[in-house]
């Protein structure tokens, strides 16, 4: 079978390709090769700008533009040619090096070919390419839908700012809340974690075979290679160079990045489950789309499938984020190769995340508030104002108010407006306090107003 969205083993590249395909330029084999070419090209240009004596004045401004065009115009055909070279070299980064050298010939730069990959090991390329692709992919493809979800939640909070809802703690009726405020809970949580995600540095290793610039220093001992390496990684590539490494980046900040993404997904799982429950309670209806079928057997059903799809994909993503964060920082001695195959999978949890984000956006757009259901639930649960009554009675010095309300609400099967008001009229308090108590209802006992 030819590989198509229909024959792909992974649903990321199959069923969900239309959504997850946006990540292909960053995390596919093509994407990895392209980022490697990018680093090799920028490194060569940078060596000429230091300058190394043999490169001083050897690359014109026009040739720099042409070199960088190798990256911007990089094609699938060129990626395939690099893969063909890899079949001979059995080394993926060396194949990229040969590709760049061949391109130099076409640009009349054959005399400086041996400064491609000068003094480097493959991990200097991989451990800059991968964090660079992660940085670009997260900033361009992961954060935008997250921001849209947060904006959508804030929009809900504004629309439902005055909507009273019976809260449920331990699954039981509790003090009423405002539906808009419950949306703000998720806004705050997500914004805090997004800030932490954005604060994680995209760390990179760059320092030769064992991280000490051995080859660079032996060839050019008068150069401050640590300072220069920091300049290349931090200023030219826009990453954060780790100062002390083995042959590979230690990946601690990569672990922090994945843990941050995992926490964001966990909050979204919490949100998806809450909305699913509200739908089951009839607090929300869902907009129908012409031609859609909710159940193959039950024509009346409109299932909350978008939130279920999101929950499932977020769970898969989190399992992989947890594995990546736990595995990558561990490498035997100065390195082993286990990180190499694992790093090729960094796009998979990001793909499941973006699939989930898309489902959440779709599900949120379908929600229709059913205020009648919320009002009916509040009307059926007048017992929740007992907290308010006993608290005011405590303020007034009333004897054992909690116990009095407990006796009323736990033994009387029919707690409603009438029974609550009848109870209030029996209390030995001033008429002013009674009026205060009679004004309390499940619809207005919602606490401090909140702002959006």
Number of helices: 19
> How would you spell out the order of helices and strands?
HHHHHHHEEHEHHEHEHHHEHHHHH
Low-confidence stretches: none
Number of domains: 3
- Averaged pLDDT, please? 94
Question: What is Rg?
Answer: 31 Å
Q: Which structural class best describes the helix and strand composition?
A: mainly alpha
Q: Beta fraction of the residues?
A: 5-15%
Number of strands: 6
Calculate the terminal CA-CA distance, rounded to whole Å: 54 Å
CATH class membership of the largest domain: Mainly Alpha
Task: Note the overall shape.
Answer: elongated
Describe the strand arrangement of the main beta sheet, using strand numbers.
1-2
CATH topology of the largest domain: Fumarase C, Chain A, domain 2
CATH homology superfamily of the largest domain: Fumarase/aspartase (Central domain)
- CATH architecture label of the largest domain: Up-down Bundle
Helix fraction, binned, reads: 55-70%
The main β sheet shows up as: 2 strands, antiparallel
Written overview of the protein:
The chain is mainly alpha-helical and 452 residues long. The chain folds into three domains: 22-118, Fumarase C, Chain B, domain 1; 141-207 and 240-368, Up-down Bundle (Fumarase C, Chain A, domain 2); 381-438, Ribonucleotide Reductase Protein R1, domain 1, CATH 1.10.40.30. Helices cover 60% and strands 5% of the residues. It has 19 helices and six strands. The strands form three sheets. The chain has a two-stranded antiparallel sheet. A two-stranded parallel ribbon has the order 3-4. A two-stranded antiparallel ribbon has the order 5-6. Helix 3 (29-49) packs antiparallel against helix 4. The radius of gyration is 31 Å and the shape is elongated. The two termini are 54 Å apart. The mean pLDDT is 94.
């Amino acid at each position: 079978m030819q590989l198509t969205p229909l024959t792909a083993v992974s649903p990321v590249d199959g069923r969900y390709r239309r959504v997850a395909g946006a990540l292909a330029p960053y995390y596919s084999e093509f994407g990895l090769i392209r980022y490697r070419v990018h680093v090799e090209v920028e490194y060569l240009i940078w060596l000429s700008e230091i300058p190394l004596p043999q490169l001083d004045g050897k690359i014109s401004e026009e040739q720099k533009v042409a070199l960088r065009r190798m990256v911007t115009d990089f094609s699938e055909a060129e990626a395939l040619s690099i893969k063909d070279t890899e079949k001979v070299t059995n080394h993926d980064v060396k194949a990229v090096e040969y590709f760049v050298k061949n391109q130099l010939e076409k640009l009349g730069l054959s005399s400086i070919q041996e400064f491609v990959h000068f003094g480097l090991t493959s991990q200097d390329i991989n451990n800059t390419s991968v964090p660079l692709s992660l940085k670009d992919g997260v900033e361009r493809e992961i954060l935008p839908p997250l921001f849209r979800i947060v904006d959508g939640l804030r929009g809900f909070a504004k629309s439902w700012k005055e909507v009273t809802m019976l809260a449920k703690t331990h699954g039981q009726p509790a003090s009423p809340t405002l539906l808009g405020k419950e949306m703000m809970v998720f806004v705050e949580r997500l914004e805090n974690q997004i800030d932490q995600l954005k604060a994680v540095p995209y760390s990179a290793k760059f320092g030769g075979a064992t991280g000490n610039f051995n080859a660079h220093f032996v060839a050019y001992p008068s150069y401050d290679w640590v300072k220069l390496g920091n300049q290349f990684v931090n200023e030219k590539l826009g990453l954060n160079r780790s100062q002390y490494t083995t042959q590979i980046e230690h990946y601690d900040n990569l672990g922090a990045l994945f843990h941050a993404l995992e926490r964001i997904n966990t909050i979204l799982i919490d949100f998806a489950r809450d909305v699913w429950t509200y739908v089951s309670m009839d607090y929300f209806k869902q907009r129908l789309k012409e031609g859609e079928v909710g159940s193959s057997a039950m024509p009346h059903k409109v299932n909350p499938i978008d939130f279920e799809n999101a929950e499932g994909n977020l769970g898969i993503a989190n399992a992989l984020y947890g594995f990546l964060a736990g595995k990558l920082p561990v490498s035997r001695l100065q390195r082993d190769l286990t990180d190499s195959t694992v790093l090729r999978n960094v796009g998979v949890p990001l793909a499941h995340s973006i699939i989930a984000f898309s489902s959440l956006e779709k599900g949120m757009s379908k929600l229709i508030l059913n205020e009648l259901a919320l009002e009916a639930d509040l009307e059926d649960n007048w017992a929740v104002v007992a907290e308010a009554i006993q608290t005011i009675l405590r303020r007034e010095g009333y004897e054992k108010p909690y116990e009095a309300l407990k006796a009323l609400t736990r033994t009387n099967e029919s707690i409603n407006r009438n029974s609550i008001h009848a109870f209030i009229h029996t209390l030995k308090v001033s008429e002013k306090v009674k009026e205060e108590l009679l004004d309390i209802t499940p619809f207005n006992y919602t606490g401090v107003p909140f702002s959006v």
